[in-house]
Amino acid sequence: MYTAQQNSTAHPLPLERYRLFDSHDLDEAREFVGRVFCPHDLATLRPGAQLDACHHSVPLHRDASLNYVQYGPAVHIEPGHLGGFYLLQIPLRGGAMVRCGSQAVESHALMASLPSPTEALSMRWHDDSPQFIVKIDRAAMQSRLSALLQAPLHQPLVFDLGVDLTNPALLGMTSFIAYLRSAVETNAILLGHPVLAEQAENHLLTSLLLSTAHNYSAALASSAFSPGAAPTVLPRVVKRAQEYMHSQLEQPITLADVCAHVGVSARSLQQTFAQCTGKSPMAFLRDLRLDAARTALQSKFAERAPQVSDIAARYGFFHLGHFAEGYRRRFGETPSETRQRLGPPH
After folding, report:
1. Domain 285-342 belongs to what topology?
2. Domain ranges for the chain
3. Is 262 exposed, middle or buried (0-12, 13-18, 19+ CB in 10 A)?
4. Which CATH architecture has domain 1-217?
């Protein structure tokens, strides 16, 4: 059996510590990849071409996983209907011709593909075209969409197949995916902390739904979508949202949770929050959590209190670098400086 590590000592492959298999054998590759995704047909496009295949995969929490897949030579992949999941596929080099239902796209490093499970999928990966793939459970994605809309779905969620990664609107999503990749490769806390993993999945699904194009995009963008909502959303909604956030500072709540609590769509809440506070709902929640973390750090018993990292984690900040930077921007000093400035308790 071929081992990918033999050719990757100088430049480790993405997610290499989560390797499922590596092989030259076509049937073995089809079997192992099919276990994570779904049964499919796999064939090389050049007779006699030998695979250089591997698959690395790591689940985030319950509903999403990060994957690295390579085949080496050009291959034809025919999954048909994915059925139970969505795939965001990003070629790291090379490219692929992807067809899903009536849509087709030539995918490359700046043009990802996002096939939908209700449409038949067929792909031709070009030579030396490894892909970084985010797999997301269909039911979870549709549940998140319904929560954001505050309404049931009346038809399947279908994304535009091509995802232009140069679009500035996608910067937040692509940066977050890059962060997730880095976190699982270097920081075990993401996988070892269920609350953080759940938050990561929630944010991933929400960012995909709000930044990529699909057949519910117009509904998400409509501030008046929420059934039975008043034509103008009153500031009382903002107050109720703020009260809910205050009561949930240590819980992994999401934008969808806040929307469900106050009974309006995500777009309505975002617009009204911006008008009333100058911030998005989640930016407001982040500031509340930073304030709570500062209060904990300023406690006269701080030196007997948990470490800075524990206080940060209590309020949903699991990346200490990001926490420290956000804290410094808000308060003009780092968390460690806050604690050091207090000196020993009296």
Report:
1. Arc Repressor Mutant, subunit A (1.10.10)
2. 1-217, 285-342
3. buried
4. Sandwich (2.60)
Q: Which residues contact 184 (CB under 8 A, 6 or more apart)?
A: 15, 18, 58, 60, 66, 190, 191
Q: State how beta strands 75-81 and 64-70 pair.
A: unpaired
Q: In tens digits, what is the pLDDT along the chain, a chain of 346 residues? A: 323 444 444 578 999 999 999 999 999 999 999 999 999 999 999 988 999 999 999 999 899 999 999 999 999 999 999 989 999 999 999 999 999 999 999 999 999 999 999 999 999 999 999 999 999 999 999 988 988 887 778 889 999 999 999 998 898 899 999 989 988 888 766 777 787 888 889 899 999 999 999 999 888 877 334 444 443 344 788 888 988 998 999 898 999 999 999 888 898 898 888 877 778 899 989 988 998 888 888 776 544 557 888 888 888 888 888 888 888 888 888 888 888 766 554 4
CA 232 to chain centre: 32
Separation of alpha carbons 221 and 184, rounded Å = 33
- The CA distance from 146 to 55, in Å, is 33
Q: Is the CB of residue 98 less than 8 Å from the CB of residue 115?
A: yes
